[in-house]
Structures are given as structure tokens and as C-alpha cells.
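Friendly challenge for the regulars: who can give me the C-alpha cells for this chain first? No prize, just bragging rights.
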Amino acid sequence: MRVVIAEDSVLLREGVQRLLADEGIETVAAVENGDGLLDAVTEHKPDLCVVDVRMPPTFTDEGLRAAIECRRRYPGLPVLVLSQYVEERYAVELLAGGASGVGYLLKERVADVKEFVDAVRRVADGGTSIDHEVITQLMVRSRKSPVDSLTPREREVLGLMAQGLSNTAIAATLVVSDGAVEKHVGNIFAKLGLEPSNSEHRRVRAVLAYLDS
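First reply, four minutes later:
Bragging rights claimed.
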């Protein structure tokens, strides 16, 4: 796997690069701003970009804007965004362009090597990985949406889907059978107005409905 890192903090940039190297993942470019990210993606055509939301010069949303532009230029380019805080609109805006191959994690998750590497590999493979803190805040603020019709267990299952977990992984997390999870997923699709299916396309649409609720 070939990765481009965009992070203005030298310590974090080099730390992530070293962590990935230990897992056999090559960093082909490590840059400190949005323009550098765009140039690096154009030059190297990486398998994944790891991008900080806030970078120079204004430290607001330069990284996110650059990530969205990269995905516009190269549809399907996997992007894993790192943020210091839960910034809901950034997560939703990134996913609005298509939830395949995107992730949004708090920077503190980098300290959990296994969790971070799992997210890197999942997003690079076209999956999703949304920080559970983001999911929790989105759940709290949701009002008058189809998601409100879900039972607490169905919302829990959908939250785990948003983190990128498969049905089998969800079953293991909740300590229930695969069949029970499949039933919940079918109910979720039905309540969100999606044709019941286990296809990745339906899962992505359900996650988008959840995050935009």
C-alpha cells in the first residue's frame, strides 16, 4: 500500500509515517498543507491519503477542502481524515461525496496502533471508518429524520455499520448471532426507505442517511 500523509505537525507527520512503515505500508509523500497534498496525489497516485482537517494558512478546513478536491479529481480515492476535535459538518461533508473509501478519526486514535491500522486498511480497501465519538454526537443532534424510527438496537447496529464493521464483526461486538444482525440490518434498510439487501451499496446509503440525519 502506498500512502500520502498531509499533516502540518512534524511530530505527528513523522509518527504516522513510522507507524505505517512498521506495518509494511509505504509513505510516498509527507506534506504540510493542502496544496502539497494535491501535488503529491497528482504525482504519486497513492492508494490512500491520511489528511489533517486543519492546516496552514488559516487552520480551519484547508485539509478537508484539499481532500474533497482530491476525490473530485480522482473519484474513489480513499481518504482517511484526522481531526483534533469532533467536527460534525466536516464528517458529513466528506461523506456527502460518497461514503466508499472514506474515514474520519480523532487524532487520539492514532495512539491505538491496532485501531488506527485497521482503519487505514479498511478505508484503503474501499470501506468506511467513522470515529464513534462523531457517531455519538450525530446521534444526539438528530431530529425528525427516518433514523428516529429505528429502535435503540437498530441505531446501535447502524452506528457500528458507520464505523465500517461487517455483519459478523457487529455480531461479535454485540454478542448476538449473525442472523440477528442480518434481521436488524434488513429492518434498518426498510425503515430508511432502502430495498433490503446486504450489498455494500445499500450499507453505504444507510450510513449516509444516518450521518446526514
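The radius of gyration is 17 Å. The chain has a mean pLDDT of 83. Your move, everyone else.
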